[in-house]
Amino acid sequence: MTEISEWNEAIEYEKFLETAREHVELMKARYDDIMLDEQDEDLLSSIQHDIKILVIGTDRCNDTAGNLPVIARMASYSPHVEVRVLDSDKHARFHQNYRINGKRKTPVVLFLSTELMELCRWAERPNAVYQIINEKDLSLDEKREELRQLYSDSEILRQSLGELSDLLLRADLILGRS
Hints:
By secondary structure, this protein is an alpha+beta fold. The protein is 47% helix and 15% strand. It has a 5-stranded mixed beta sheet. Helix 2 crosses helix 4 (62-75). The chain is globular and about 45 Å long. The two termini are 24 Å apart.
């Protein structure tokens, strides 16, 4: 395994929001809108090991704007989880390491140990969004608008929360959760 030293160049979520030029108000609203139930809160607060979540993304990306607030909200429930964001454009060479089917996907979410070793990863969007987008024949502009609308849907945010929470728990299990 290789250490993900780019963690040290990444910025905290709040700083990302301060420097972002696009989707800022949407990300703030999504952070506030995501509804965690008691089971979600219990799972997130039960994380036993320190886990770092590195999000490779950009403020221009609808998928980043849709999912980054979910990740930040998850982290707010656990003192063991730290989130940082790495600009995918400024770090394009590093981002190339995480292509899917030959394409760069954004965001890429890496769950890391305290030694900055990758434990697991998630890319781009939840399965439900892939299914909806792939069922339609949309132009690029239509796809962007559809994504913007989808990420305003509480059920889609819950889908993201579920997938990302499962990976956070998996990372905790890899580290030896008892």
